[in-house]
Amino acid sequence: MMPKYYVQSDQSRWVLLAPDLDAAAIRFAHCVLRDCVKNHQRPASSSRMIDQEIYQSLLDRFGDTVIVSESGFDGTQIGIFATSEVLNRWNQQIENIETNMRDRDA
After folding, report:
1. Do the beta carbons of residue 55 and residue 38 sit within 8 Å?
2. Residue 16, beta-bridge partner list
3. Is the pTM of this model over 0.85?
4. How many CA atoms lie within 13 Å of 37's alpha carbon, on the beta-carbon side?
5. Into how many domains does the chain fold?
6. CA distance 93 to 98
7. Distances (CA, A) of 84 to 39, 67, 105
8. pLDDT tens, residue by residue, 19-39
9. Do the beta carbons of residue 26 and residue 5 sit within 8 Å?
10. Strand order in the sheet with 12-17
11. Which residues span the domain enclosing 49?
12. Residues contacting 79, CB < 8 A, separation 6+
């Protein structure tokens, strides 16, 4: 069974199951940003799975850091990540998915 984490940045708060702190931070980013991922669209060689306009509008939901705790939103902070680092890692995962989909379709 995966541990439960309380993850927040600015006013966005999620309770998530994840295998570790890093995964909790990335999963949090996905929960906040999931509305910018285009549904049921395979990325063409020149397009992305991400709607950049929606992505930009969702960025204001993040503060400077992503904070992870196992004991509640006001509990002991066991992980503090720079939001830019979390977003870079999330974007890298999306790019990897796009590459895998393009390779599979080729």
Report:
1. no
2. 5
3. yes
4. 16
5. 1
6. 9
7. 25, 13, 32
8. 999 999 999 999 999 999 876
9. no
10. 12-17, 4-9, 65-69, 77-82
11. 4-105
12. 21, 22, 24, 25, 66, 67, 68, 69
